[in-house]
Amino acid sequence: MNALTYIAIAACVVLAAAVIVLLLKRQAGTRKAAEAEEQARIILERAREDGEKIKREAAIEAREKDLARQNELETQNREKQRKINETERRLLSKEENLERRFQSIERKERDFTQKERKLAQKEKDLEAEEAKIAETLQRSVQELERISGMTQDEAKAMLIKKIEDEARLEAIGTVRRIEDEAREKAAVSSREIITNAIQRSAAEHIVETTVSVVDLPSDDMKGRIIGREGRNIRALEMATGVDIIVDDTPEAVILSSFDPIRRELARLSIQKLVTDGRIHPARIEDIVESVKADLEQKIKQEGESAVLELKVRDIHPELIKLLGKLKYRTSYGQNVLQHTKEVAMLAAMMAREIGLDTNVALRAGLLHDIGKAVDRDVEGTHTELGVELAKKYGESEKVVQAIASHHRDVDFPSIEAVLVQAADTLSAARPGARRELLETYIQRLEKLEEIASSFEGVSKAFALQAGREIRIIVEALKVSDDRAALLAKETAAKIKAELDYPGQIKVTVIREMRAVEYAR
What we know:
This protein is mainly alpha-helical. It contains 15 helices and 8 strands. The strands form 3 sheets. A 3-stranded antiparallel sheet has the order 1-3-2, with helices on one face. The chain has a 3-stranded mixed sheet with strand order 6-7-8, covered by helices on one side. Strands 4-5 form a two-stranded antiparallel ribbon.
């Protein structure tokens, strides 16, 4: 507020006091006039004092604000003056720089003008020299044409043809020499690479058969394994799908089956039963289930061991489990897991020797036959199944393509794929590595089981006695006794129509009805 405002307020206060005095006089009457006048005088005095005080304060506040505003204006003026001075200094500096640049440009322009005049003079001199040379060349050409009896174009054509013929002959000779050297070096290098790879990965080869021998502590154990009226041995054969042969061989029984996993399951189960000592059908079923779980764990460990041995990283756990299954799969008698490890090592070594991607060759070699772990359960060739599995579990496109081409079903997509196919051939071609008759024999057993399992109501089917017998276990609730007899005839007729085999095949259909109750 300014001084006028304070004065106005003081006047209002005085007026209010006067009004109050009048009111007091009117109300109090003449009796209290003196008292009212005194009070009014006191009020007026106080009002004057307050007004004077307010005016003084207003004047002081106004002077302080004026001083603050003057200081602020002076500060702003000084800042503006400083900025103006700074701008003037920069402009002077830029003006000096422009002046120096202008002088430099003028000097360069003078130099350029001088050089341009010199170049123009040299160009004229060169034109004169070229004219002289052209005239001299023309006279020389005319003289040569007169001496040789040919025109300039004819001489050029002859010279070019002669040069082309000489260059062609020289190029052909060079190409032949390079090709011969390349063939010679390639033959030597390839022999060295393959020989070194085979030597460094030399692995043992054992052609696996379809029988296993289980040693027993004594001949008395044979009788316990057979059981009363053969119930124990029948329970073992039904639970494992393996034909158990008890003959005159001392302290041993023979397990016959084309499926190595079944034979291993039966072998471990018998060993565990012999150790346990309690041999009866119920215990046999418990032991077989327990061994089956242990065997699955062992299969996983076999896959992990193969991956660790080859130092392959980031393999999906399902692929590791399938690799372990290959431990119990054979191809022409050759163990497939051993074969895949060897192919991986051979392919990786050859890739390293010729500077290719070792990791792709190693992974593709290890997984090239992964489809054989599931080809008995899923429709399709092992190559197609292997490609699907590799794609499903995140293998790279190069590895998938190498798997797809390892039997030349498709064109080779890369050099690594060629190395995998070569390593596969090398591993299979080693003397003693494979036996073709065994593979054909196993395929016949697989076909035999497939035919038996194709009928409705069949629970399990096992080829036994080296393919001379097929045992079919049917579901009792779906197949009656009469239907079981008919099923045996139909199976025999289908085997005769679809399968080639020596001798005869015995078809046995087993229908078992069990009633189970618990006493509590």
